[in-house]
From TrEMBL, chain A:
A biological process term (GO) from this entry: tetrahydrofolate metabolic process
Coiled coil segments of this chain: none
GO MF term (any one): sarcosine oxidase activity
Protein name: Heterotetrameric sarcosine oxidase delta subunit
Source organism superkingdom: Bacteria
From TrEMBL, chain B:
InterPro entries, alphabetized: SoxG, TrmE/GcvT-like
Cited Pfam families: SoxG
Organism whose genome encodes this protein: Silicimonas algicola
SUPFAM superfamilies per record: Folate-binding domain
Listed name of the protein: Heterotetrameric sarcosine oxidase gamma subunit
Length: 86, 182
């Protein structure tokens, strides 16, 4: 698989560390219930289709949010996490 | 400034250049190195300050800006290493990183074949042209790789990785040489 680092351009997967679902960017608000926190921490969708995942580009240090298809393995988009909206 | 660490980073592992097969590695003494990271919206001002003091612009991603023996190497989002001069422009976070990096130059006809064993980077001239630089992996290490001539690459890693870099490179050089001799 090849991913596009927004800073470095298209690179091999070996340069990246997979860091799980991008759902961790949507942190519950301070007053959230225990149930919401349990969802946030433990419950993950398993979509057939478009999924958003976090990757860390080890050499340049950029966290990126990758939109990809779990059906075709196509990589649709990648953007720096600092620009991602929760 | 006093030079407190008198020995070069690769001194113990590479006291002199080594030639194996059709490749050669030699240590590059970087001299003063300053890490520069402009604050938000300050890149133009930093470029102006660098131009005035050292004749180089703040590099764009993958770019090396050069003037005489001074160069500025892009090393990450909004970050560059200024090598060969000391400038600490306003509007940027700066750190003196002289003696913190180990630089080796790998040259020769098989240099690309040697690197291909160690890095996932696309080294074809169309993808990695002369005087382009890239943050990538060399073996297990993160490194800055720069093409300094058609068959010469400069590899910069943390000083603490000097031993591993020399080991990985000489090993790959031996392997390429052995295959070429078959």
């Amino acid at each position: 698989m090849r991913l596009t680092c927004p800073h470095c351009g298209e690179r091999d997967l070996r340069e990246f560390a997979a860091r799980g679902s991008a759902v961790v960017l949507s942190r519950p608000s301070a007053g959230a219930s225990a149930e919401e926190w349990a969802d946030y921490l433990h419950i993950r969708d398993n979509p057939a289709g478009e999924a958003r995942d976090l990757f860390y580009h080890t050499p340049c240090g950029l966290w990126i949010e990758v939109t990809r298809s779990t059906i075709t393995h196509a990589v649709i988009a990648a953007r720096p996490v600092r620009e991602a909206k929760p | 400034m006093a030079e407190l660490i008198a020995r070069t980073p690769a001194h113990a592992d590479l006291p002199q250049p080594v030639e194996i097969g059709r490749t050669r590695i030699a240590e590059v003494v970087l001299g003063p190195v300053t890490w520069i990271a402009p604050f938000d919206g300050q890149e133009k001002a930093v470029t102006a300050a660098l131009r005035a003091a050292a004749g180089v612009a703040f590099p764009k991603p993958g770019q090396v800006t050069r003037k005489g023996s001074v160069r500025a190497l892009s090393v990450g989002p909004g970050q560059a290493l200024l090598i060969g001069a000391t400038v600490t422009p306003d509007g940027a976070a700066t750190t003196d990183q002289s003696a913190a990096w180990c630089a080796l130059s790998l040259s020769g006809e098989d240099a690309c074949a040697v690197l291909a064993r160690l890095t996932p980077l696309d080294l074809r001239p169309s993808a990695f042209a002369l005087h382009r630089t890239a943050r990538t992996m060399v073996g297990h290490m993160t490194a800055s790789l720069t093409r300094t001539s058609e068959n010469t690459y400069e590899i910069i890693v943390f000083r603490s990785m000097a031993h591993t870099l020399v080991h990985d490179l000489t090993r790959a050089m031996r392997h390429v040489a052995v295959r070429a001799a078959l």
